Each structure stands twice: as structure tokens, then as C-alpha cells.
Amino acid sequence: MTGKIYLVGSGPGDSGLMTLRGLEVLRRAECVIYDHLVGEGITAMIPENAEMIDAGKFSGHHKLSQNEIESAMIDRALSGRIVVRLKGGDPYIFGRGGEEAEAIIRAGIDFEVVPGVTSASSVPAYAGIPATHRDFCSGVNIFTAHDKNGSIPGITESTSIFLMGVNNSESLQRKLLETMSPDTPCAIIENGTTSRQRVIRTKLSGLHESVVSKNINPPAIIVVGNVATLNLDWRKNLPLAGKRIIITRPEGRSERLASRLHDMGAEIILMPTIKTRTLHGSIDNVNLSGYDWAGFTSVTGVKALFELLCESGRDIRELDAKIAAIGSATKEALNSHGLKVDYVPEVFDGHHMAVGLSKIGGKILMFRAENGTPEIDSVFMNCGIDFTNVCIYRADYVKLSHVPEFADIIIFTSSSTVRGFSASTDKLRESLAVCIGSQTADEAMKAGFSRVKIAEQADIDSLVKACT
User: What is the pLDDT of residue 220?
Assistant: First the structure.
């Protein structure tokens, strides 16, 4: 059976600017053929089991020719796979998407185009430059700085935005000066929308000199026109502007934290280093009654227990014990199921939970991860506590498909997320490791992070505060 090809625009770099449809399609991909301009926060979202083909194109260097790219996506679709051709910006704005669509149609394969946010509008917006403004211009033109014959296109008096123009800045400047004043305002925006964004403002007469002296490299766009004098920068005062933050929490657990950090100006890369799975059948022969306390060490454990109760036809009312939760998030998860939590330690970690329950005393049933930290067991045994562990889920490491070149901050929310990260890469150890507790921090230091910061509490508010 023939598969399907999706021509997907990933936007200008910031993962938050990828469309919902684009992300939905990417998560189903079995093969992803991606360009150099695709942001690292987006390549980190590629499914771990998908084949990744780097079709990156630099000036004067193409890893794959256009014919090879088209052959790769068509061959894999013909073998029955879901293929995503992932492009920076929009696939139909200087992305050669039209040529690829023609090749797909000739091959008789079903396809869909998922438009993307073009850098022509989004990058100036992130730099505080509106492409149109009633007091300055009445139109906007979008050009590539060179056509297939290497020529510079004609210019009008409206705002002109040039994509891929840095390497042609000298000839572009020369052509523009034939019809425009040397004093025409210009802005060069490098790595637009990302944490590495730079904005250089100059005049047309100094365009090429600015590119050279400031060592501007692709990806970058050039804005020519009076709007380039405006500086309506809405990000400069955000507390995390210019910071790239990696979040290692399991898939589906990062959205609130990522949203908070993004609102504060950070570039976010979601890079789950563990995935959890329920251990089916793990409570089948377990007597849930007769305990004084039932302890939960994570939100995942709460979800796993109710999943297991449902599949086995059992009832939470068998659990006739008081309930302890390791922290506020776990407490909220239990509350959402109608369960009152009787004990939460002042410090949200396993050690303090075990110490607190040991002081209270009684017979304890702990719902745990199969490969969780042994510290709770050690505390209970040292205190002579009668306890039983029921392992209802496990955390497995995720093999990272792509590791970014750099990060300012990496957030770890458990010791297992640190171990999962280390299992995939030995890079980025110069980054600040923000950890949810002392046990996680100890694991981060063992993994080679010299800069470690511990959140005051094991909750999202404290993690966000620790990043500022």
C-alpha cells in the first residue's frame, strides 16, 4: 500500500510557531526529510523511531541534490510509509515546495501541504519591525535575494524583505543603490525568533559592510525601507529573552512548564529523556486493604493505578487507608480522582516523604516505579517500618534523535530524566542544570554538570523561578 507525503512548513525556528496541524503530522511520521533551517526545538519533536534524513542546504553545499530529495521521499512513500518533508518557514515561499509537489503528482502519490509561518513576516515581528505601517509604507514585497539565474529582482518603493540574502549582500546592495537612496534604512536579522536572534540596523550604504563586520551568517533576512527605523521590540524586557531551555520531562508532562517559560521569552526545546509505561497486571494479586497509609511518589503513579483498577475491574474503595503524596502535583492528581490527601511532606522528595511517614508510623503500601530511587526503602528499613512496595509502572530511557548544539538551561524533574539524558549524550554539560530536588541535583552532578541549581519546591512555579 502506498503511503502519503506531507510538505510541512515548520516556521522560522521558534518551536512555538509551528502550526498545530504541522505538529500533529510530524508526530505520525515514519520518515522525516528535514532542511537546515528547521529549528532544533522542532527536530527534537521528531518521533524517536522515525527515519531522519538531513537534506540541509548551505550556500555552495547541498547534502542532497533536489532530485535526490524528491527520490528519497517518493521511494519511502511508495514503500507504504508516512513521509514528512519538513521545511523552514513555509514550503511554498522560496522553499521549492512547488517543485516537490509536481514530482509527487507525477509519481501518483497522495500528499498534503501544511503551510508554515514565513520568516518574511515573523522574523521582523520578533525584531520589533512591522512589515507595513500606515505612516511609512503601503505595501510589502518579499524576494529571494537571488533567482535561479543569480540575478537580483527589481525593487519598488514599498518595504522589501529579502530572504537568503546574506551571502549576496554586496551584489544586493549594489543593485538596490541603482534606484534607492544610500540613506534608506535597513535591518539585518540573524537567527530570527530564536534565543540567538541578532538585529543589526544600518543604512543601505552600509549594508554589506555590516554583514561582514558583524559576522552575520545564515539564516538571516534583510529588511529594506523606512519601517526598519522602528523598534517595537516586545521581547527585550521579558526575563528569559535570549535563553534556550531544554525540558526533559516525559512526553505529555511538559506543556504547562513550557508555556510559562515561553511566555517569559525563552526558546523552548522539548526533549523527553524518559517515557513511562504502566506494568499491566501488577496489582492483580495484591491485597490493597489492611494498610494505614498508601503512598504515591508521582503523578504517573496515580494515573497508572487508576488505569490498572479499571482494566482489572477493581475499585479504589478497596484502599481503606490514609493517603500520602510526594508533592503538590501528585496531590492535585489524587484530588482530581476525588481522593483526599492526608499527608504531603514540606520538602517534595522521596527522602522527606519517607522520613515523615516513618515518624507517623503504621503499615504502609507504596505505589512506585519499578526502577525508582531506593532511598525510600532505606529510610523505612532503618526506621523499622512495615512497608510493601507495589511497582505499577516503569520509566524507560528515550534515545534522543537529535541533541541541540547548545542550551543555556536544562530542566531535570527526576533522577531518571538525568540518567536518560546521560544515556543518549555526553554533550551540553556546560549548561545550567535546574533540578526539582536534591536527589535529582546529586544525579546531575554525577553526570558531569558543574552548574546545578535546585528549585525551592518540586513544583512548576519553583522551576520557573529557578530559571530566572
Answer: 94
